[in-house]
Design brief:
This protein is α+β, with helices and mostly antiparallel strands. The chain has 2 domains: 4-80 and 143-174, 2-Layer Sandwich (Alpha-Beta Plaits), CATH 3.30.70; 82-140. 44% of the residues lie in helices and 19% in strands. The protein is built from 7 helices and 6 strands; from the N terminus they run βαββαββααβααα. It has a 4-stranded antiparallel sheet. A two-stranded antiparallel ribbon has the order 5-6. β2 and β3 form a beta hairpin. It is globular and about 55 Å long. 25% of the residues are buried.
């Protein structure tokens, strides 16, 4: 399989000051294709990574960043899989008002995906819906959106659950009956 380039950003847990030592450690750990920056004390690393798949690119970047020996831990992958109406409009190449009307069923084919919280949707669901109805001004990569959502779910899970056996216990308790 031919490698392709994938663009994404890793956002780290906690507060970090971007120093030369931190940047050098990330570079030495394999993040030579990433650009670290801090925004309000939050370390973010923007990547253009070559890999055989989007998932492989993101997971290798997570491993590299966390292996830098600095106690870094990835909190999430951007662009976020959770979006509000403004971001939906931006990603679809439409206005916020157009996105609001899609959500309310006042425009478009109806059947907009349900919110996962007040005013919050999963981008993967929205991208799939928009693609199915030809509503995006540019092609949307639904596969990347789904992979980002899954990776962010696992990153959240590891922050809240102690062991792999706890994860399996919870998975067995909530999975659909087969």
């Amino acid at each position: 399989m031919k490698n392709e380039e994938y663009d994404f950003e890793l956002v780290m847990d906690g507060r970090h000051e971007l120093t030369d030592a931190l940047a050098d450690a990330l570079f030495e750990a394999g993040c030579d294709d990433g650009t670290p920056a801090t925004v309000d004390g939050v370390l973010r690393i923007g990547f253009t990574r070559e890999a055989e798949s989007f998932e492989a690119a993101v997971l290798s970047a997570v491993r590299d960043a966390e292996s830098a020996g600095l106690g870094l831990r990835v909190a999430r992958v951007e662009p976020s899989d959770l979006v509000g109406a403004s971001e939906i409009g931006r990603r679809l190449g439409r206005s916020r008002e157009a996105a609001r009307k899609y959500v309310l069923g006042e425009r478009g084919p109806g059947g907009f995906p349900p919110a996962v919280g007040e005013g919050i949707w999963r981008w993967a669901d929205v991208a799939e819906w928009a693609t199915a109805h030809g509503l995006a001004s540019d092609p949307l990569d639904v596969g990347h959106a789904r992979e980002t959502a899954a990776i962010n779910d696992v990153l959240d899970l590891r922050r809240h659950v102690e062991t792999q056996s706890d994860v399996l216990r919870l998975w067995r308790a909530v999975r659909p009956a087969s």
